[in-house]
Amino acid sequence: MGIIDTEHIKNLYSQKYANEYEAKFLTSPIAASDTKHEIELIRKLLHPGSRWLDVACGTGFYLSQFPECRREGLDLSPAMLDLARQANPGVFFHEASYLVDRQEWAGAWDLISCMWYAYGLVGSMDELEKLIGNLAQWTSTTGVCFVPIADPRLITGFPLNYVQPNPWPGQITIDGIIWSYSEENGAQVHRHQLAPCVDWMKKAFAKYFTNVRLDTYPPVGPQGACRLAILASGKRS
Predict the structure, then answer these.
(1) Which residue of 32, 66, 113, 221 shows the fewest CB atoms closer than 10 Å?
(2) In the chain, how many domains are there?
(3) Residue 18 lies in a domain
(4) Which domain holds residue 85?
(5) By percentage, how much of the chain surpasses pLDDT 90?
């Protein structure tokens, strides 16, 4: 069983990286369409009086789009949180791991989000199950959990099926892949990230929610590939 590498994450998401993050991954031409879609989706999920927790909130960009909302953020990176506080005056931010069990948050949030592919930074599938359990625990009985998916099929460009043909008794599943992302000629490396298959993610959330559906983003690029996100509601008792 792996353990989330907190020091690696803090070093990776440095002040320099934090300063460049939004321009690279949220507002650049390749990302702007996805970001717009996510903002509009969050707008539909928020209601008067909603309490929203953005897990792995980064620079607080998404939180800053809804200044009228009761909201908080959680992240491991001090550099990211510095920018999040600047963008969201008066909002409370927690510098901590999303794997920490917080009983005081049980059922406290009407919207839980975990944007981009932050869940992939865990050290093992067991840790990912722990994270999903935390997200579910923190969601209110009438709340929604929103998690964009790092789809292995988009990462690999291969139609990877969750259940595989097998001549032996039992069933073989491809639970996910491990992948790395190198930037700036190797100066920044997001190493050994987990990307579970979409069906695995749906099953993991279905343990805690009666309604688990997929949201499809607008197609991007010449191949028309579409990202997906989990929308989980109907929290089980």
Answers:
(1) 221
(2) 1
(3) yes
(4) 6-235
(5) 82
| DSSP letter string, the chain | -----HHHHHHHS-HHHHHHHHHHHTSSTTTHHHHHHHHHHHHHH--TT-EEEEET-TT-HHHHT-TTSEEEEEES-HHHHHHHHHHSTT-EEEES-TTS--GGGTT-EEEEEE-TTGGGGSSSHHHHHHHHHHHHHHEEEEEEEEEE---HHHHHSS---SEE--SSSS-EE--EEEEEEEEGGGTEEEEEEEEE-HHHHHHHHHTTEEEEEEEEPPPBTTTTB--EEEEEEEE--
| pTM reported for the whole predicted model | 0.94
Q: Is residue 37 part of a domain?
A: yes
- Please indicate, yes or no, if residue 20 is contained in any of the structural domains: yes
Span 13-64, pLDDT tens digits: 999 999 999 999 999 999 999 999 999 999 999 999 999 999 999 999 999 9
- Give the Å distances, CA to CA, from 110 to 46, 56, 71: 8, 17, 10
Q: What is the CATH number of the domain that holds 109?
A: 3.40.50.150
